[in-house]
Amino acid sequence: MGNPSATLSANEARHLLRRTGFGAPRTTVTQLTGRTRGAAVDGILSFKPTKFKPRGSGTDARLYSWVRYMISSKFQLQEKLVLFWHDHFANSDAKVANDRFMANQNATFRKFCKGNFKDFVKTMNTDVAMLEFLDTVRNFKDVPNENYARELQELFTLGVKDFNGNANYDQADIVQIARAFTGWNYDYRKAKPYFDDYYHDYTADFSERGPKVIYKNHGGFQPTGRNYAPTADDEGAQEINAVIDIIFDHKDTSGKSTVARFITQKLISYFAHPAPSAAFVDTVIAESNFDGAVVDPLKPAWNIGALLRAIFVNDEFYATAAAADPSTGFDASTPKSVKWPTDFVVSTMRLLRMRLQGRYAIVNGGDYRSVHDHLENMGQHLFEPPSVFGWDWETAWLSSSTLLARYGFARDLINARGTSTSRFRPQILVDLNLTDPADIVTAVTDVFGITDQLSDGEKAILADYLTNNGAVSSLDLHDYDTRNLKLHGLFALVMQTAAYQVH
């Protein structure tokens, strides 16, 4: 249930910050501890979407620009949402082949990230990168291309099946919706979409295709379905918006809004945990009026920000704040989420108060690799998701090679030297006057916000590393060799723990 009046414990404040942003600095955790969930969440959601757009020549330069912005931005939830929508509307520059189009799309995600979802989808219909990636520009009246019509339903709005396992659409719906999107193209120089009437499918010209009716067998529209262009005056450029209006009226076989359930489940899976209950999904939809079930000017339908607030004040959102049970690991009893590579990199850089070095965004130590190379080795190349399905989440992020890449990133960070912001500076993170190994372990795990997520046994192992298995009882962190070997190494080990790989 939603409980905006409940006060946040330190553990819950840390969890909220980790899930809605990149890392949870101790000072910010302290500021939120004791505040109500509602007040804390309202503050996190209060940002006005910025007009930032990744800049530079080439996709890699745009990637460097965006990652740097994520590291430095005050609006962490905004960037967490932009990352989500980049995966949801997964377009790749490998096919679009235009970094300007991809950067413009990234700016569109920022503009709509917490706004009206229906308006968002309508805008994406004619996003230039989308027009190219899903072949709308190759969707002609003579031979309609079905790619966008299929993915619009399967991936962007409805999902293939509803919560009861029943199909949400069929091939006939794909065919008919494809007709609506014929005739759209874009001006390359201006990077703007336009409608070409000559290439559009008009009913009078293709009478054998019948009227433009969809969802005769799905969506709760009865056997007659819904006609998105019932008269000649309704045909033309406006058909694509009419299609979206009908899709957003679609009901599943439980009589619930299909779009609302699909998007809400995906947002919960991203921000809370990978297996949300149907009750959790339906509760936050009702509390936010996301599906517009009631007419309420104070709670307009399809407001993403209102939906997020309902998620972030819900008891079930905080259920995974506790440490995983070491006897069961990260299973259904404590459904933790694996950090995305971008989240792992950006949150670590922020917590260590480090910046990337130079034009090529280098981690200035170890193998001196660019952030592009680090992320790609971990399995995530921004602006180039592997397919229209986006990236596979959760344990798909973890393999022997990608874990080694995460460990290599940690190693390179603690070896980073150079300018004041690109080098590793443990002296600004922990008190060098500490001498007790257990206290030093706590100070370092506190930097990463995982002290409460580690078992006593894990902490003892880290202390054993500091003391060479008990050979020494105290450390002098002011000594260069001790600090450079033991303290730097401890930071790397903590970054490599299982507890730091998950939320």
| Total number of strands | 4
User: How would you sum up the major sheet?
Assistant: 2 strands, antiparallel
Oligomer: single chain
Structural class: mainly alpha
Strand content: under 5%
* Rg for CA atoms: 25 Å
Q: Tell me, rounded to a whole number, the average pLDDT.
A: 95
Terminal residue distance: 21 Å
Task: Kindly state the percentage of residues in helix.
Answer: 40-55%
DSSP summary: helix tally: 23
The gross shape turns out to be elongated
Order of helices and strands: HHHHHHHHHHHEEEEHHHHHHHHHHHH
- The order of strands across the largest sheet is 1-2
Low-confidence stretches: none
Q: In brief, what are we looking at here?
A:
Among the domains are: 10-46 and 256-318, no CATH class; 116-247, no CATH class; 427-501, no CATH class. It contains 23 helices and 4 strands. It has helices spanning 10-20, 26-32, 37-45, 59-72, 76-88, 93-96, 99-112, 117-125, 128-133, 147-157, 171-180, 239-247, 258-271, 278-288, 304-312, 315-318, 341-351, 371-378, 400-414, 437-448, 456-467, 480-495, 498-501; strands at 184-187, 192-195, 213-214, 226-227.
